[in-house]
Amino acid sequence: MAALWHGLVSAMATVMLFFSARTGSYGLGIILLTILIRGLLFPLYRAQLQSMKRMQQMQPELQRLQERHKDDRQRLAEEQMRLYREQKVNPMATCLPMLLQLPLLYALYNMLERFNFHGHPPLAPNFLWLPDLGKKDPYLVLPILGGLSTYWQTKISMALQPGTGQQQMQMMTYLMPLVMFYVFWRLPSGLAVYWVVANVITIVQQYVTVGSLGAGPKVGKGGGG
To answer: What is the pTM of this model?
Structure first.
């Protein structure tokens, strides 16, 4: 397992160096690596959005089941699973892409934490306003963008799942951006570049994919609860 993990981290470093050498920038190398990772995950992410959309369409029937079996939780769970099977919907499919992204994010963190941004001249460690991608953003721009993009992405996800744990999701809508702000305030700015770019790509994928499946998500007071 350790060898597999080391191989993943080394592969990420190799791909980032490949992109960085051809663009002349570590920052652009990280952005292109992000696009590659999101592209590889897109089939799973599209399946996730399709499942969320079908869950949204099933809400009236799920609410009827909840009203009908409100005093029998076991029967309610059985009826809900029966409905999921009939509609060919897997509730766990909404979590899979995020679960897959977590080891990739941690591997990227391991790679950036150990990567020597000063060891591959003529490439320089700076990018835009960032003096060193291996260190924290001194101006807090990326932590703020990380929090805002996380907030917007969570709002879209809420709009796709009306009536599904709205109270908990409402809490996550405001909690997660604060958590991500703190995380990227402490971690290397290169990792924050990955997160912000990945969030922007994900938001675009949400609008495009959900739009192709039907009505796009409505974000705001009407869509987010």
So the answer is: 0.75
